[in-house]
Specification:
Elements lengths: L1 H38 L12 H19 L1 E4 L3 E7 L3 E2 L7 E4 L5 E7 L3 E4 L6 H7 L10 E4 L5 E12 L4 H7 L4 H4 L1 H12 L5 H7 L1 H17 L3 E12 L2 H145 L2 H11 L15 H31 L1
Antiparallel strand pairs: 1-4, 2-3, 2-5, 6-8, 7-8, 8-9
């Protein structure tokens, strides 16, 4: 909005400059025309005319944006204002930071700083730091001189932190002299301290009742300035400048009091040291007595403990002997029981072994019987087969003799001598083999 205001102002100014430029150009052409006529120039241009109406219209038109711009008021942050009319005076209400519209050429806005301000008397403790932190309205002045109850003059270094109440700016603008921070605040602060300090002595103001004096002065200043729309936040009494004679006397008195206090402190220290020595002696004596009593009690307790131990020693030993006897009897009984258990275990093992062998013998007999029956059946079947086919005997004998022999079957009618001799040899071999097999079977049977 501030940019728009400046833009409107510049637009109106440019339009006025344009109107002035038009008039100047027309007047220049008219002058050139008159000079040409005076010189008698044959070929003259047409007589120029000054455009008064166009320039006047442009000028009147330029007042439009300028009036609009004059009606725009921008209140910056940290400030507030009130409308002041040329016809009605100060208007009620406060204008806060932002953009506002007023009646151009009839109303204007009076701005006030609503941030915290400082009023200071006396030299600041840190001038460079104070210049960086306080506001621009801080007033540096000499120490405020007031008289005490004794009639002595003391200088007070005071700092009052305050701000203008934005709700009462219309009252401040209409009724109070401006600027307020120079016309009202210093007078009220000085008046409050000069009315209050004469009720106290220098000693009270300097030390005994310093905080009380500051508190009462703060109340008075706050009440007086609040009636004028000024809010007081804090009143500080930074320093008090005493008269030179009183300061010298007070310094001597303070030195004497300090020496007196120092002597009193030394006396108290010595008395405490004596008391500490007495207490240490008493503590040592009490410690020795307690130590002796403790040793005697320890000896008595040891004697009683030994007597009590002797009373319980014999029964304990008897119990130990009985316990040893019981343990020996228990071990003996356990040994006997273990032997009996082992004997019973051996008997049971022997019985079990006999039973096992019996069962094995019965099983072996059953096996032999079954095997014999099976062999008998087999032999009967083989005998029947051999009766039907006697030539199978020779074949079986030949196969058992060697696997490299080739067998040839011939008729057994006795016509061929060679064949008959071979057959006789084969029969003798078969008989020998059968006899050996029977001997082998007989020798293996008892072993099974």
């Amino acid at each position: 909005m501030l940019f728009l205001k400046h833009l409107l102002m510049w637009g109106g100014a440019v339009m006025m400059l344009a109107a002035a430029g038009i008039l100047a150009y027309d007047l220049y052409l008219e002058r050139q025309y008159r000079l040409a006529r005076l010189k008698g120039t044959e070929t003259l241009p047409e007589e120029p005319s000054v455009r008064w109406r166009g320039a006047l219209a442009l000028t009147l038109l330029a007042w439009g944006p300028m009036l609009v711009a004059l009606g725009i008021v921008v209140v910056p942050a940290g400030e507030a204002g009130v409308r002041v009319s040329q016809t009605s005076g100060t208007l009620p209400g406060t204008i806060y930071p932002g953009v506002h519209f007023v009646t151009p050429l009839v109303e204007n806005v009076a701005l006030f700083d609503t941030r915290d301000q400082l009023f200071t008397t006396g030299q600041a403790e840190e001038p460079e730091k104070l210049e960086k932190t306080v506001s621009k309205n801080v007033k540096k002045a000499e120490a405020l001189e007031v008289q005490t109850k004794e009639g002595l003059t003391v200088g007070l270094a005071i700092t009052v932190r305050y701000r203008l109440d934005s709700r009462h700016l219309d009252y401040i603008e209409e009724n109070l002299p401006q600027p307020v921070e120079k016309e009202i605040v210093p007078a009220v602060v000085a008046s409050a301290w000069r009315e209050l300090v004469p009720n106290y002595t220098v000693r009270d103001v300097f030390a005994a009742k310093r905080e009380e004096v500051r508190s009462k002065a703060a109340q008075v200043i706050t009440q007086k300035l609040a009636a004028d729309g000024i809010v007081v936040k804090e009143v500080m009494l930074r320093d008090i400048q005493l008269p030179q004679e009183y300061a010298d006397g007070l310094q001597g008195l303070l030195l004497k009091e300090q020496q007196n206090d120092q002597m009193g402190v030394q006396t108290e220290i010595q008395a405490k040291q004596v008391r500490i020595a007495e207490l240490e002696a008493e503590a040592t004596k009490a410690q020795q007595v307690k130590q002796a009593e403790g040793e005697a009690q320890v000896r008595v307790l040891q004697a009683k403990a030994e007597a009590d131990a002797m009373q319980y020693t014999l029964p304990l030993k008897q119990k130990q002997i009985e316990q040893s006897k019981l343990e020996a009897a228990a071990r003996k009984e356990a040994t006997v029981q273990n032997a009996e258990a082992q004997a019973q275990a051996k008997v049971i093992d022997s019985k079990a072994e006999m039973e096992r062998r019996k069962l094995l013998a019965e099983a072996e007999a059953d096996r032999i019987r079954v095997t014999a029956a099976a062999d008998a059946v087999r032999m009967q079947s083989e005998g029947a087969i051999l009766k039907q086919n006697p030539m199978l005997i020779n074949k079986i004998v030949a196969e058992r003799l060697s696997d490299k022999l080739q067998i040839m079957m011939v008729p057994s009618d006795g016509k061929s001598f060679f064949v008959n001799d071979v057959l006789r040899g084969m029969n003798l071999g078969n008989q020998n083999v059968n006899s050996q097999a029977s001997h082998v079977d007989e020798s293996e049977t008892p072993q099974q």
